[in-house]
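Collaborator request log, item 7. Partner lab (contact: R.S.) asked for a structural prediction of DUF7092 domain-containing protein to inform their binding assays.
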Amino acid sequence: MSRTPGTVIAVGRTPPRFRGHGIYLDGTSAAARATALSFDDATGELVLEDVGARWPYDEIRRLRDQAGGDQAVLRL
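Returned to partner:
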């Protein structure tokens, strides 16, 4: 993996369509919401489909998993 200007993470090969799942914490409630994740490369945004949120790639930061696990934690 390498970082290049204008992208968050560049990888050698990605599937043409990505759909994953995660949890969403909005910062106002301790209750997490399950959400489906996808990339919209046309607009350059990560889409959290079940919560109606979209974040530009360049505003996403990966944080260390504070619980010591191996999960990806994104600060949006």
